[in-house]
Amino acid sequence: MNKTELIEKVAKSSKLSKKDVHAVVDGFLKSIEASMKKGEKVTIVGFGTFGTVSRKARTGRNPKTGKEIKIAAKTAPKFSPGKALRESVNSKAAPKKK
């Protein structure tokens, strides 16, 4: 499912206009992004936690040439699913992907 499909499903189930749902989804995503940029965690009980993780600088290898390369330190986004989401996804009623 992509963002457009998500908006369509939410609009249909909530009986709100696609325009209104689009504004809410965009606001939701921008709020999470802004909090993560500040280094804050965003926890949605029963769904999961959005946060960041710091990765140290390290030496890697170019797989094509085998030469050593330096990989800079960075901050990466991280999502940890909540217990309810994990259990829902792992339930026997969930359809299995091939």
From TrEMBL:
Annotated GO biological process: chromosome condensation
Keyword Membrane: no
Cellular component terms per the entry's GO annotation: cytosol
Residues spanning the membrane: none
Presence of keyword Hydrolase: no
UniProt xrefs under InterPro entries: Hist_DNA-bd, Histone-like_DNA-bd_CS, IHF-like_DNA-bd_dom_sf
Protein origin, superkingdom: Bacteria
Region annotation (Disordered) ranges: 77-98
Pfam families for the chain: Bac_DNA_binding
Family (UniProt): Belongs to the bacterial histone-like protein family.
Protein name: Histone family protein DNA-binding protein
Organism whose genome encodes this protein: Leptospirillum ferrodiazotrophum
Organism ancestry: Bacteria, Pseudomonadati, Nitrospirota, Nitrospiria, Nitrospirales
